[in-house]
Design brief:
Elements (H helix, E strand, L loop, with lengths): L13 H11 L1 E3 L10 H4 L7 E2 L5 E2 L1 H12 L2 E7 L2 E6 L3 H11 L8 H12 L1 E3 H7 L7 H14 L4 E6 L13 E5 L1 H5 L10 H15 L5 H8 L1
Antiparallel strand pairs: 1-5, 2-3, 4-5, 6-8, 7-8
């Protein structure tokens, strides 16, 4: 994939990934449904997932998520058809403006409202702590809770602030990591979340940008990522 925002050269470092996010504005982490349009597909082969001879694994792209989120001037969450990706802070106000208009505030007394209020009161929490605080501790509750959180992320009410990893007895991090969740207002401030445009104006601006960003994409493919 090539466009005016990417020349087709794969990136090799987390710094280059940060720069690419700023250039593009919107970048899904994994398969987006549009061939070639994801951080995984744009990364050099050395940055992708590999199984090691000892049975372990290495995946530089996955490990870079934390530094990119905390230092890369972007917002991260499950924003694209319930899949994770990065949005630059330049484009975040328009994205949030449109999404909040199409994904209304959680209804009073709903589970989504309880989750959001708990997170707002605490400031930030890792997913499993938030799940326990909201009473989702029984059998098969994890996937059900994750579904509520994903819907809140799709509405731009919850974002990922960082990733927290458990450590072994040698103080080495291991595993896939836990998302440290917060609200966009807590992460970047209310003023940074408000564009001086209507939701429809924000949508049109993003829709036109996507046509230049991924010129091979159809209208329906772009809509799937934006809606």
């Amino acid at each position: 994939m090539q466009s005016r925002f990417w020349n087709g050269e794969p990136f090799h470092t987390e710094i280059e990934l940060m720069q690419l996010i700023q250039q593009m504005g919107f970048l899904p982490l994994l398969d987006s449904g549009i061939r070639g349009y994801s951080a995984e597909e744009m990364a050099d082969d050395d940055c992708r997932y590999v199984v090691l001879p000892d049975g372990g694994w290495d995946w530089p792209l996955w490990k870079w998520k934390g530094p990119v989120v905390t230092e890369g001037n972007c917002v991260y969450g499950k924003f694209f058809a319930q899949k994770a990706g990065f949005i630059s802070r330049e484009w975040w106000p328009d994205f949030m403006n449109y999404r909040r208009a199409t994904h209304p505030q959680p209804q009073e007394g709903s589970i989504e409202e309880a989750i959001l209020l708990t997170l707002q009161e605490q400031g930030s929490m890792i997913t499993r702590e938030l799940r326990a605080a909201c009473g989702f501790t029984g059998p098969k509750m994890r996937s059900k809770f994750d579904g509520y959180v994903t819907r809140l992320q799709m509405g731009c009410y919850i974002v990922t602030e960082d990733f927290v990893y458990p450590v072994d007895k040698h103080n080495r991090e291991y595993g896939w990591g836990w998302s440290l969740l917060t609200t966009p207002e807590q992460l970047i401030g209310r003023e940074a979340c408000r564009p001086e445009r209507t939701p429809e104006e924000s949508f049109q601006r993003m829709f036109e940008h996507f046509h230049q960003l991924v010129p091979q994409a159809t209208d329906s493919q772009i809509m799937k990522l934006l809606k």
